[in-house]
Amino acid sequence: MPTVDVPIYPRPFFCAVLKTLPPLMITPASRILGTGHYLPSIVRTNLDLERMVETSDEWIRERTGIRERRIAPEGIVTSDMATAAAKSALEAAELKPSDIDMILVGTVTPDMPMPATAVYVQQKLGAGSCPAMDLSAACAGFIFGLSIADQFIRSGTMKNILVIGVELLSRVVNWEDRTTCVLFGDGAGAVILGPAGGATTTDGKPRGVLSTKIQSDGALAQSLMIPGGGSVTPMSLEALELKRHKVHMKGQDIFKVAVKNLYSATKEALDLTGMTADQVDWICPHQANLRIIDFAATRLGVPKEKVLINIDRVGNTSSASIPILLDESIRSGKVHAGDTVAMCALGAGISWGGAIIRL
Ligand SMILES: CC(C)(COP(=O)(O)OP(=O)(O)OC[C@H]1O[C@@H](n2cnc3c(N)ncnc32)[C@H](O)[C@@H]1OP(=O)(O)O)[C@@H](O)C(=O)NCCC(=O)NCCS
Fold first, then answer.
1. Where is the segment annotated ACP-binding (predicted)?
2. Is residue 300 part of a domain?
3. Using CA atoms, how far apart are residues 108 and 140, in angstroms rounded to an integer?
4. Which of 5, 117, 216, 292 has the fewest C-beta atoms lying within 10 Å of its C-beta?
5. What single DSSP character describes residue 132?
6. How many domains does the chain have?
7. Residue 29: φ, ψ to 5°
8. pTM value > 0.85
9. Distance between CA 225 and CA 61 in Å, rounded?
């Protein structure tokens, strides 16, 4: 059999060649048509927490950047918050519930284990019989949903997909554990993803989802979990007494991996587009801890003014974090149509991801 000699070029050679090429011409399949969010009205401040556990406003602000968080009142459930955010996103997209072809809900605090929270959202919106499902990727749930929705639109199977990130963490947080209860808050964010349809900015750049990159590493599953209520530790009186139905976290383990992976997620998503960090207008990171965000942004070489932040007012709302921040930033007039936004998130699993979009 004849053989062909294939030259083996060293990696630096390829990198040098790649740098001489113009940015990739990306043709986005999908585009964000509208965004919305919902935050419950109850504000729980650090001073409120000082009265509940041994902590201080100073410690929480310095170690996390959080001043206050929102708490859902009794009677409000996860699907209520998700539906409110979805209605607002539909209105912004000028679409009706019957226009939705699929509903994806990222959440680790569903209405109940079965059925999916997404079907309650479907029912409350009055959307037709489109597929509706939940995604469990914790704080990365929204990026996972966006990536999956983009693939369905790219394949031509679906047109308009409602992607929601929603959490009612106050019901699964142990309010006696100061290492976790100070971090989390409740809320919902939603986007409608639809066909990009060749839309461009005024200077001719394609608008839409330019890239997504999602990853998981089960080796770190023990770092952040709600260990009870599943097949490992079914609901029992003993499990309840041991608070196995509450959030358990090894904070420092998550901190270290979050700094590393938020950087790599953004970098890898950028590499897929041929862009560099200085070419994006905004970084819209998951709001887990201001110090994590600062470290990751510094490593990316992005100045503070380009980093969107609302952790001081809402805390860590897990999968809802990015879509709430994005919608707030658009509605406040800070972020505009045509802006390029890099999103990145990491959470339990661990699961993480990045996405580059041009609005
Ligand atoms: C949880 C987190 C804020 C803790 O901050 P930290 O700087 O790592 O603090 P440490 O865990 O080293 O604890 C330092 C001290 O503060 C204490 N402490 C912890 N929580 C406290 C609180 N709420 N108030 C006051 N003191 C607190 C600790 O007990 C410890 O005391 P010790 O030194 O006497 O043992 C930080 O690790 C973090 O943000 N991790 C990532 C969490 C995360 O993002 N989770 C969600 C994933 S999306």
1. 287-291
2. yes
3. 11
4. 5
5. E
6. 2
7. -90, -35
8. yes
9. 24
pLDDT digits (tens, 9 = 90+) for 106-125: 999 999 999 999 999 999 99
How confident is the model over 32-67, as pLDDT tens digits? Answer: 999 999 999 999 999 999 999 999 999 999 999 999
Look at residue 104 and give its three-state secondary structure: strand
- In the annotation, is 15 catalytic? no
Nearest to 38 by CA among 72, 63, 62: 72
Which SS3 state, helix, strand or coil, does residue 189 take? strand
d(CA 215, CA 281): 24
What is the distance between the alpha carbons of residues 223 and 253, in angstroms, rounded to a whole number? 7
Same domain as 218, residue 183: no
Q: Which domain holds residue 125?
A: 30-195
The two tokens of residue 78 are 């996860």
- Tell how far the Cα of 168 is from the centroid of ligand 1, in angstroms: 22
Same domain, 38 and 182: yes
In total, the chain counts a number of residues equal to 359
Nearest CA to ligand 1 atom 19: 179
Stretch 168-183: mean pLDDT: 97
**286 counts as catalytic:** yes
Q: For a substitution probing ligand 1, which of 179, 249, 290 has the most ligand atoms within 8 Å of its CB?
A: 179
Pairing of strands 208-216, 42-45: unpaired
Decide: 265 and 137 in contact? Cβ < 8 Å.
Answer: no
- For residue 39, the 8-state DSSP code is -
